[in-house]
Amino acid sequence: TQLLEQSPQFLSIQEGENLTVYCNSSSVFSSLQWYRQEPGEGPVLLVTVVTGGEVKKLKRLTFQFGDARKDSSLHITAAQPGDTGLYLCAGDLYNFNKFYFGSGTKLNVKP
Amino acid sequence: DTEVTQTPKHLVMGMTNKKSLKCEQHMGHRAMYWYKQKAKKPPELMFVYSYEKLSINESVPSRFSPECPNSSLLNLHLHALQPEDSALYLCASSQDTAGGYEQYFGPGTRLTVT
Q: Cα separation of B96 and B87, whole Å?
């Protein structure tokens, strides 16, 4: 059983559409990170959320950390083909000294 | 600068070969990680080093041997690998292993075992 459940697993949309990716758990995380990865490359850190209820914006990307620090979401507005990639959430639990990854969301934005 | 470097970029090795993967960071981070990633899957944690000491080994077979010569370098020594060990090997670092620190990844080494 995955500690962090990420959904959807796959998403194929047209350019200009909006989308939301979810990362859920029954565990409380001290922080949660979102990454974007292209094939054959390492994951690139997009954002870290630390405070319950926190909302962070990065251009067309909006990240939210749940009040109880158990879940997070990534919303993309007006998706572009350049947003195509594998989106990963990763969280660290108190005192476990490692990061737990969600299963990933493969996003394809068609021009 | 948030750069983690890895060499080589690609590696092809036979099952009887010995090779090493290298990782370097100059951010002053005291935690370093090795991950293995198969296609279309999330990274799987292999090892964690904290302050140059091995703190976590996720039951990795002994044909993978990590080494942390100093706070900036992390190696992964490979010996007698199997074809199923072919994967993207990722190195990462963070300021510490305690909660709330960001983890930065290198570009990875694409390993093929023949």
A: 27
